[in-house]
Amino acid sequence: MSRRKPPPAPSPTAPCPCGLPAVYRDCCGRFHRGEADAPTAERLMRSRFSAFVVRDEAYLLRSWHPDTRPAEVPFDPELRWLRLEIHSSTEGGPFHREGTVDFSAHYTDEGYADVLHEHSRFVRVDGAWVYLDALPPAT
Fold this sequence. Notes:
By secondary structure, the protein is of the alpha+beta class.
């Protein structure tokens, strides 16, 4: 198995990996740097996707609910996150306490394309949105 280097962090003026029409510095970069909190559950989801792209373990752990947070985030050196699609969201706005985001995250693993589809649940802890868990798939 080859060990590739992690992808370089996007330059401050590169398009944000989350898919919004903004540069990384002004979009998810400010959340990663701790200059602001994500205002909605969807923005938190987008910033977490971007954190996986740039392998920002500190931000991922900081934005994870303390009851479900792992001790570390192991990054697979062969996995590359490519793009995010938001399908829907419920609640998760500035005046809500909970919210969900249904999304697909496209990636390659050892050169093979795949998609992670998840319906994630977010809650507020001390006023800030955090990722709680993935809801079971609808049957």
